[in-house]
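Sync notes, pocket subgroup
Present: LS, DG
LS reminded everyone that the earlier model was apo-only. Rerun requested with calcium ion included. Inputs:
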Amino acid sequence: MTKTETRPSSITATVDFEADGVHHGFLQLPYSRDDSAWGSVMVPLAVVKNGEGPTALLTGGNHGDEYEGPVALFDLAQKLTAEEVSGRVIIIPAMNYPAFCAGTRTSPIDKGNMNRSFPGRPDGTVTEKLADYFQRTLLPLADVVLDIHSGGKTLDFLPFAAAHTLEDKDQEAKCFAGVAAFAAPWSLRMVEIDAAGMYDTAAEEMGKVFVTTELGGGGSARAETIEIAKRGVRNLLCHSGILTGEIEQAPTRWLDMPSGECFVFAEDPGLVEVCRDLGDLVKAGEVIARVHPIGKTGAAPVEYRAKIDGIIAGRHFPGLVKSGDFLAVVGVAE
Ligand code: CA
């Protein structure tokens, strides 16, 4: 392991992170393959720096089929001027760039799920090498880290910003202050199904102020959710003292995910009959979805019920489910 940990990354940034001004460039990752023996993966990035001050690291496209983040961040990278900034903004609109170009959650090169690849490996696959570069080079530069997610092709969510319960309560308070500043319509205290290998966990373990989001889903983006992303990014930069100006306030409702009881998973494959929509209030024991067997007619659907009282905050998006698929998550109003 020591050898891996001390091995330098093969990735180079084509911009100087310490130079003042607006710099557009790439993370260049050598990737030898059939169609380009000495080729590279080129991950676009922008660095906007002006003097001393905090650094914000902004990412979208951690999963390649989520679009609010890339839209808001390509837009910001094109518009942001150095004069507006005190400190530094590092913008990577599509973190798992091969996945983003393919429109898939994971990388078509190595099937790597960026958000299960941390801390990464400098001698690993393309996705692991990118994760390692974030782990050892980019995260240490940052004070505030925002990773913009949406549901992708298989999930849909109420638009929310979120942070996690942390052992360090001072750090946790700063993360939730960032969530509040983002001012999404919903704000969540989030529980992960499996936090191992996540970028979130890597940033939090380094003591960073970390804010994440789920701004919609279904493998596309809406005008409303794109506006939420754009406003949230600027608000978080204002909150961090990197941009001057007022935070654009917007009403938010706080939701908690108190336990694993929030989640409902399918145990049977079939056709989903959605019985409660995003934002609907539900009671424990209430049927939120039925799954119809599709092999033949005449069989009764299997009913899936909420385990707690709350609000439907997320759901499975496609019309068919397999055994083990996430069906819904119920958030509890704080
Ligand atoms: Ca995601």
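DG: Residues 223-239 form the longest helix (17 residues).
LS: The chain has a mean pLDDT of 96.
Action: DG to write up.
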